[in-house]
Input
Amino acid sequence: MARFSPGSAGCFALLGALCLPLPARADPAEQAWTAAGADAATTAAALSAGLAQFNPVGPLGTMAIKGAVMGYIQSQPAQEQTAMYHMASSAWAGAAANNLCWIAGAGPVCLLLGALASHWFWQAGEPERQQALALSRPGQGFTEAAGALEAPGVGQDRLAARAPQQPAPALAPHVGASDAP
Output
């Protein structure tokens, strides 16, 4: 098992430089390509440190699969692409975190760290996925209400439910000509 070395510190810096800004990037495709690059770079570092590849298709097969995944996502309808790019980038960023953990010599706990990193990257993209979903619906967009993003009309129902209910005005008795003094 590899031990932590100064070279490993460079790998952690690489993950921080490439992956931590992922949720802040505007373009989901750029996020996915960056995460794919981080996974590839950390895989190369792990292999050069003498660690074994768990992926049965090897490094070249992995790169080919990543290219195919990105091509598939680009061929999908625009409203589905954001979520698909986020799935890919969260998986690849988690794989990069897993690789760095193994390089540092932390052992099997790295599998958990990689899964947690993947989950964190997925959760960080939730507002962007919700916005893309709302914008894909005709005539809808996002408005900010009560500190949260809501689709138009959603907050109106909730506000109406909290409004005090006014009783209907009582009807005045009908005064006709025969009722006059």
Residues 1-6, 141-164 have pLDDT under 50 and may be disordered. The radius of gyration is 27 Å. Residues 97 and 114 are 5 Å apart (CA to CA). The first strand starts at residue 143 and ends at 145.
